[in-house]
User: What shape does this take?
Amino acid sequence: MSFVESMFSLEGKIAVVTGGGGMLPSYIAVAFAKAKAKVALWGRGTHHPMEEAAKTVRKQAGLSLDSADVIGITVDTGSTEACEQALEQTIQSLGVPDILLNGVGGNIGRSKFVELNEKLFDDVLKLNLMAGLVIPSKVFAKRWISEGIKGCMINMTSMTSYKPLSDTWAYDAAKAGVLNLTQGLAKEFAPYGIRVNAIAPGFFVGNQNRALLIDEKTGDLTARGRAIIARTPFGRFGEYEELWGTALYLASSKASGFVTGVSIPIDGGFLIDNI
Ligand SMILES: NC(=O)c1ccc[n+]([C@@H]2O[C@H](COP(=O)([O-])OP(=O)(O)OC[C@H]3O[C@@H](n4cnc5c(N)ncnc54)[C@H](O)[C@@H]3O)[C@@H](O)[C@H]2O)c1
Assistant: This one.
């Protein structure tokens, strides 16, 4: 194994990727599988049956389509009981996980503050904070602490963790909370050797935001798409593969063993834009 391979290889590691049927989490799962981790994709399976999601990751990682090293598990990560069952299922199929990528999350709806839908606000907080972080992290940390496993958690922060975006109030508050919890849990779990970090993607075009950024009929940028590009010093959206290096760096205890409580922006400079 070359020096670089030994630094970033995840051989012998087992990773759980929640929201594993989603855009960003499934791309990150591909990187973990390419780096030779065994991977369990956890997801609700509502829009993406988890076995299909597993097949897609196997294919993109260059594994055989029936490889047992990447599995899909249907689970609502907003339920402690369901996460405990999914963890047992993962352990039976792959072994005790060392890595938890909390990929569940996202925004629903936009509005002026005075027109805010309170039920939707609550749903977005629950999606990003509870299902997206608190519940799976609690289940994993309990197990890791009781078994003395020096696990690694990676959360999904966002540009909104640092500065509010317009009209996405609950998402902004939730992602600021994800950054806060990343730092707080990093301190809480440091005595057990458990690391907690985050990836903060800038703007990547996916199914859930394509219509917001690109006019379907003309293929031109929408006003919001143009505003984002104008504020991104690199002048473009991110490519999903550009998440891989940071994900592997944070997941590899050899590469980032003394790193905890950080959130790494992958944003083409969005956060350092000025006038
Ligand atoms: N797409 C971006 O540009 C971007 C930017 C910054 C941060 N993020 C964050 O990255 C993460 C992934 O985003 P994405 O754009 O890939 O979203 P996505 O919607 O494609 O993926 C999220 C997945 O989570 C699943 N899910 C939702 N609730 C669940 C639950 N309770 N239990 C199990 N699975 C559940 C969904 O079915 C979906 O497959 C989110 O936290 C998002 O906020 C995305």
Residues 19, 21-25, 43-44, 46-48, 76-78, 103-106, 127, 131-132, 156, 158, 201, 203-204, 206, 208 surround nicotinamide-adenine-dinucleotide (CB under 6 Å). The CA atoms of residues 39 and 104 lie 16 Å apart. The beta strands are 14-18, 38-43, 70-74, 99-102, 152-156, 195-201, 263-266.
